[in-house]
Design a protein that fits this description.
With 433 residues, the chain is α+β, with helices and mostly antiparallel strands. Helix content is 38%, strand content 19%. It has 14 helices and 16 strands. The chain has helices at residues 23-34, 63-67, 94-109, 118-133, 143-146, 164-174, 180-191, 267-285, 291-294, 301-309, 327-354, 358-375, 400-403, 426-432; strands at residues 2-6, 12-16, 43-48, 54-56, 76-82, 200-203, 210-215, 218-223, 229-232, 236-242, 245-251, 257-263, 297-299, 317-319, 388-391, 418-421. The chain has a five-stranded mixed sheet. Strands 6-7-8-9 form a four-stranded antiparallel sheet, with helices on one face. Helix 4 packs antiparallel against helix 7. The longest helix is centred in the last third of the chain and has 28 residues, at 327-354. The relative contact order is 0.08.
Length: 433
């Protein structure tokens, strides 16, 4: 069975999976193709059902039971999307950050992410222009990118500054010499400060009056002509969905029990809202995913009848959730996997270097020098030399400029109290420069 996978930049590629395979097998092949296998837990696959609704493919269930591809000869169309958003300093691979950037760029230009002021708009557009087109060239300015500035703000267009284009160009000029990967990093860093960062939106009935956003901190209620209301995960008592109805019991600001009951477009959307709330709570707020989440399942009619006679039967069994790891577990697992890969690459190189001639030894020395230079390069901007130590954790991973922009150590994620200037020996500075 062939699956056509579309990326946020509209690039489509195909992977082949067994007709009876589960969604996880397809996602693993997609991530392997893109070089993001170690951080695949941040991503998911979306499909469109017969009603035109975009739904997440449950990675623990067979694909054919969800997409209804029985007897279908044409390829299944799926979309690779970021499912769990995290700040860019938690992403260890450039390829993963690039996929996050592609998705963030689309969300900005399609108004799913909105800046709150025009200064942020000019900065975001300039970063997109730098990442997509490189340094500003007066003879070939990326006006197509500049003209999309109005699409990424919640501010009324009538209030747009008359000199907005000049501000964007001036901002773009500031980034001269900045690498594409660095531009993508800082754009992700900017949007990670948005209140709506990582939210998955759901429309309720009647259409357009109320929207629910499920994000890293809880569920937000957006209602016309009313201030938004955030219900944090810690204040949620219970949640459930039945057909088109979604119910949420929670503690209000005055610690009184309240009930949110609303109808959605379909039972699939109501189930998706319940699933999103549970999975995001487990991913962002828990130390590990509990068995109560991983083992929860339902059965279709045929499976229910069979289970009466054999409880252990897997017939008609469908898992409700497909989350495997929490945010902390994904980061730690990816870090260990990348460390093991680098160690496996270094050992054969050292063995080969012992058996080579003088010319090969020279080449090996150059490779060691390059690795040393990489080790002394800031792990945030990947441009400047490391010259700061974070205290009290004592990790040395950043330059002075980047240290001024963060409040937590990118390596251990603990909050530091001081960013102490570090002076490397002159020999190291000369090699790096």
């Amino acid at each position: 069975m062939w699956c056509l996978i579309s990326q946020p930049n509209s690039v489509v590629f195909e992977v082949r999976v067994d007709p009876k395979s589960i969604g996880q097998e397809c996602l693993e092949k997609v991530c392997e193709y893109l070089g993001i296998s170690n951080e695949s837990d941040y991503f998911g696959l979306k499909y469109e059902n017969s009603k035109g609704e975009e739904l997440w493919l449950n990675l623990r269930n067979p694909i054919d039971r969800q997409v209804n591809c029985h007897g279908q000869t044409s390829p299944i169309r799926l979309a690779l999307r970021v499912k769990f958003w995290v700040p860019p300093h938690l992403l260890l691979q450039e390829t993963t950050r690039h996929e996050f950037y592609l998705h963030a760029r689309v969300d900005l230009l399609e108004k799913r992410l909105l800046a709150s002021d025009w200064d942020s708009v000019s900065k975001l557009i300039a970063l997109i222009a730098q990442a997509d087109s490189g340094d500003y060239e007066p003879s070939h300015p990326p006006y197509n990118t500049y003209m999309q500035a109005s699409a990424i703000t919640s501010v009324n267009s009538s209030q747009k500054p008359t000199d907005l284009l000049q501000k964007i160009i001036a901002e773009h000029k500031k980034y001269r010499g900045m690498k594409r990967t660095t531009s993508e990093y800082w754009l992700l860093k900017e949007i990670s400060q948005f209140e709506s960062f990582g939210e998955e939106m759901f429309n309720t009935k009647p259409q357009g009056n109320v929207m629910l956003g499920v994000g890293p901190h809880g569920i937000t209620i957006y209602e016309k002509n009313k201030p938004k209301q955030l219900i944090s995960f810690t204040n949620i008592i219970s949640a459930s969905s039945h057909r088109r109805t979604f119910k949420l019991e929670y503690l209000s600001v005055d610690n009184k029990e309240s009930l949110l009951e609303t109808k959605l477009d379909s039972s699939h959307v109501a189930s998706s809202l319940y699933r999103a709330l549970t999975e995001k709570h487990a991913f962002y707020s828990c130390e590990t995913v509990r068995s109560a989440v991983t083992a929860q399942f339902i059965r279709d009619l045929k499976g229910t009848i069979v289970s009466i006679f054999n409880e252990d039967s897997t017939l008609g069994k469908k898992y409700v959730f497909d989350i495997r790891r929490t945010c902390r577990e994904v980061y730690d697992n990816a870090r260990r996997a990348l460390y093991q890969q680098s160690a496996m690459q270094i050992v054969p190189q050292m063995e080969r270097s012992e058996c080579t001639h003088d010319g090969a030894n020279c080449k090996d020395s150059e490779e060691k020098l390059h690795r040393l230079m990489d080790a002394l390069t800031c792990k945030i901007c990947m441009d400047n030399q490391i010259d700061v130590v974070f205290l009290p954790c004592a990790h040395v991973v950043a330059c002075t400029e980047c240290a001024a922009r963060v409040d937590r150590c990118p390596l251990c994620r603990s909050q530091f109290t001081q960013a102490q200037k570090l002076y490397l020996p002159g020999e190291f500075r000369q090699q790096v420069c």
